[in-house]
Write a structure and sequence with these properties.
The chain contains 5 helices and 7 strands, in the order αααβααββββββ. With 191 residues, it is α+β, with helices and mostly antiparallel strands. Among the domains are: 42 residues; 91 residues, no CATH class. A hairpin with a 3-residue loop joins β2 and β3. The longest helix is centred in the N-terminal third of the chain and has 24 residues.
Length: 191
Amino acid sequence: MNNEYNDIYNEIENALSIALQNLELKNIKPKKVMLKTIVSDILNSDTHNISNILSFFQGRGNGWIRINVNDSCDIWNKIKTYLTVEKDNEYFYQYSSYLDLFEDKGFAWLKFSHVTKRYMQFQLRFLGSRNDAHLKINIKNDKFNSLINLEGVPHKIQLESGYGFNKSELKQVTHEKIDLGNSPFINIMEL
């Protein structure tokens, strides 16, 4: 263990000496506090990236990304591969419907799930954005800067049918209680 420590120490000392010499040639004289901060930032870069990713998806409606329908986009091709199944697959109808919907809209939408040191995990909710049934899609963290926020929830911005009814389209209903012994029954009548 002590030899390992010495080996690591010597490697870092040599690298730092070379870096300081190169900076001196450029007339740059960093302070010790700055060097400590830089070394700390380098050692914690994974944590820093994870924090950036998490903060990007925080807030109401920020948990969704859009992926443009484009055959040169790796992420779109992954989505298309997941949703392209044989007719005898139990989810054939749902998958093919969502694939058609994405192609009609020109983009797909995925819900952020979590992030690790290597990848971000998203959910492809093939039964609708309000339903938890999903396929997991992993995207490498180095693709983070290319992601586009959907800026809303799919059903709220009316990307999916069956959600987001216009209030003027809803019919007014009334109800009256009919006594059926001990259990009241509500009769809903359309006006």
